[in-house]
Amino acid sequence: MSLNLPLSLLQHQGPMLKTLGNIVLSSLLPGKKPKHNPDVIEDVEMILPAPDPELVSLYRRWCTHSIRTENGNLPFEPDNVLPPHLFSQFALSVCAKQLKLTKYRLLNILNQGVGLEVHKPIPMGEPLHIVCKMVEIKEEDNRARLHQELHIGTATEPHCYTAAFHTVFILSKRAKTNKTQSAKQNSPLNDDSANVFNRIGKWMVAPNDGLNFALLTGDFNPIHWVGFLAKLSPFKRKVLHGFGMFTRTIETLQASAGKPVKRIHVRFINPAFLNGQLVTVRMTSTASDGEMETLELKDQNGKVLMIGDVGF
After folding, report:
1. How far is CA 5 from CA 58, 116, 208, 289, in A?
2. Which of 74, 83, 129, 152 fits a 20 to 30 Å CA distance from 52?
3. How far apart are CA 51 and CA 12, in angstroms?
4. What is the pLDDT of residues 69-128, one digit of tens each?
């Protein structure tokens, strides 16, 4: 059974909606962009107000909705701290401020992967202190690959989470390649096909999950919620946000393990279609204590949607 979230959540999405508006305007009225990136791209520092309790509550509800674990464990989220993956609600608006300093046009951006390391929890009600750093820019094969990091904390604890973003800008057209093969070749993650995976749990991709996650995060890219526009995209139908796959997979892993995820890094391989399907979370169980396990997310037809590593 799917959720129906209130349109009143729009009131919390001002920064993200402004960012998306600026991206659209810059594509319609392109200004002059530098021909080269700056030698040094400065950090971006921001202080954001404490996330609204209603937003956090509905975000938790969506992220844990429809999860079923193989061992019967239920999802859990402490009410007194923020879900660490809530950075999906403000990440793009912060990262875009730094990306504007580069020569790349934001309309051409593709999200290829994300990571999260949790050093300590952030209590509810605390303003967020954020520093965005450009770790690497690498141009190859007609693509620019960028790695940014967000250091997220509070006034007294400035480094509670580290979130990593791997984005790609298309520089020019190239010959078509197998998307899954190309993504795996460029993935820094462990994707050893010899791994033996165990099914951890599953969750449903509801037809309205694109709109729901847009209301929660402000990412109103029409490929996630407007059917006739999604048909014009390369996917030919509506798909779930990559961050949506990321957050529900984290909650499935945490529920199964009965403890919080401390480190996770994933690469997006294929989209999850909004057709009411059940997707499956699988993980290896051969790592020693303290080591990262390999994970994957598969759709109802067995296609790999996401691969990565996770540590508890």
Report:
1. 8, 26, 10, 40
2. 74
3. 9
4. 999 999 987 889 999 999 999 988 899 999 989 999 888 889 999 999 999 999 999 999
Q: CA-CA distance, 18 to 245, in Å (whole number)? A: 24
Of residues 181, 189, 196, 295, the one with CA closest to residue 248: 295
Contact by Cβ (8 Å): 88, 245: no
Distance CA 117, CA 87 (A): 12
Distances, alpha carbon 24 to alpha carbons 7, 98, 309, in Å: 22, 17, 34
Say which residue the tokens 């919390």 belong to.
12
Rounded distance between C-alpha atoms, residue 71 and residue 65, angstroms: 17
95, two tokens:
């990262």
The answer to whether the Cα torsion of 176, 177, 182, 185 is positive or negative is negative
| CA 250 from centre of chain | 11
Q: How many CB atoms lie within 10 A of CB 265?
A: 22
109: which strand partners? 169
pLDDT tens-digit series, residues 202-235: 999 999 999 999 999 999 999 999 999 999 988 9
Decide: pTM greater than 0.85.
yes
> DSSP H helical segments within 119-188, as ranges?
179-185
**DSSP-assigned letters across all residues of 216-285:** HH----GGGT-HHHHTTSTTSS-B--HHHHHHHHHHHHHHHHTS---EEEEEE-SPPBSSSEEEEEEE--
DSSP letter at 41 equals -
Sheet containing 293-298: which strands, arranged edge to edge?
44-48, 128-140, 143-153, 161-170, 109-118, 263-268, 304-311, 293-298, 277-283, 198-205, 68-69
36 SS3 class: coil
Alpha-carbon radius of gyration of the chain: 19
